[in-house]
Design goal:
The chain has 331 residues and is an alpha/beta fold. The chain has ten helices and 13 strands. A seven-stranded mixed sheet has the order 4-3-5-8-9-10-11, sandwiched between helices. A two-stranded antiparallel sheet has the order 1-2.
Length: 331
């Protein structure tokens, strides 16, 4: 979150000369004005003019999407000590106060069989370095982390956590061809056709699903082997779910070990909220989202509950949701 500051008080009443005016600058009072949590946009080293131009264009698309959602976009383009700039920026952010911070990595990635890296101007960024920086943030702070480079799969498990939604462009470090997901996602987030549940906004889950279909369609149209398979992890288990496990917004496949479902939290996150959603307070959205997650988790445990117990718990959650929406309509 980038703080804006406002000068108050003395200067508007000062009628002395320039020297006198500067003598009172130390007495100015600065007031922090809360804003939405930012989008941190990182464009890695292009390597060639062609790729540098491509990543810059993708950065423009993300900037447009972030600003359409009312977010401040902090753009870190190739420069000396780019990794240091990113880590310092993460450390310097004020607490997000209930809003979700988005971190987007666009560029090349490499994997040598042991270590994955996001290529930057200067030293490259490893998953462990980014994890360490994020672990120093407040525990209650939520982050969306989109690692859109090639060989980004190994970033997923280290960055996974209870308050993190992690999306990688590849499922492993062995998918080394340049990923296209980073340029498609910001367009999908602004495309009404990607609004699968017709609520006038595109969630991260909807963008993930629609972008995956578009990536696959690109390779098929070019008659090329698909070299990127994106993963989404929003339940903190560090495993991730591929796009083709969904039909619409419904998951039609499950992991053999029965781990909990990804997508519940990503379905609730919108970089560009609808006007109705934007009018709700963060406290109201947090309460709504918590009840919706309870409802989904309850449905997943239906087979393990006796019929009466399931119906009783289901009714309690539904009644709380209904009361929440009635309160909104009355206001």
């Amino acid at each position: 979150m980038v703080n804006r500051f406002r000068k108050k008080g003395l200067l508007s009443h000062w009628h002395g000369d320039v020297q006198d005016m500067f003598s009172v600058l130390g007495l100015l009072l600065w007031v922090t004005v809360p804003q939405e949590a930012p989008v941190i946009l990182v464009e890695g080293a292009g390597g060639t003019p062609e790729y540098a131009a491509r990543f810059s264009d993708w950065g423009d698309r993300w900037k447009t999407a972030g600003e359409a959602g009312g977010r401040t976009v902090i753009r870190i383009q190739p420069q000396t000590d780019q990794k240091v700039k990113l880590l310092e920026q993460i450390k310097a952010l004020p607490p997000s106060h209930g809003e979700t911070v988005w971190l987007i990595l666009l560029g090349h990635g490499t994997f040598d069989g042991r270590q994955a890296r996001f290529n930057m101007q200067g030293p490259d960024l490893t998953p462990e370095e980014l994890k360490l920086a994020l672990n120093e943030r407040p525990e209650q702070e939520e982050w969306v982390i989109i690692q859109a480079s090639a060989a980004s799969g190994p970033f997923l498990a280290p960055l996974s956590g209870s308050k993190r939604i992690v999306l990688t462009a590849t499922r492993s470090g062995d998918e080394l061809s340049v990923s296209r997901l980073g340029g498609i996602l910001p367009e999908t987030l602004q495309d009404p056709d990607a609004d699968l549940d017709q609520d006038d906004q595109v969630s991260l889950l909807e963008a993930f699903i629609s972008s995956g279909l578009r990536v696959t369609a690109f390779y098929e149209s070019e008659k090329r082997l698909v070299t990127e398979h994106a993963l989404l992890d929003d339940n903190g288990d560090g495993k991730g779910t591929p796009q083709d496990w969904f039909r619409g917004l419904r998951m039609v496949k499950r992991a053999a070990d029965g781990v909990s479902t990804d997508g519940i939290r990503a379905k609730q996150l919108h970089l560009i909220p609808s006007p109705w959603e934007a009018e709700r307070t963060s406290e109201w959205r947090e309460q709504r989202d918590r009840l919706e997650r309870q409802l989904q988790e309850l449905k997943e445990r239906k087979d393990k509950l006796k019929g009466e117990a399931y119906q009783e718990q289901l009714q309690q959650v539904v009644e709380q949701l209904a009361a929440l929406y009635r309160e909104t309509r009355s206001k």
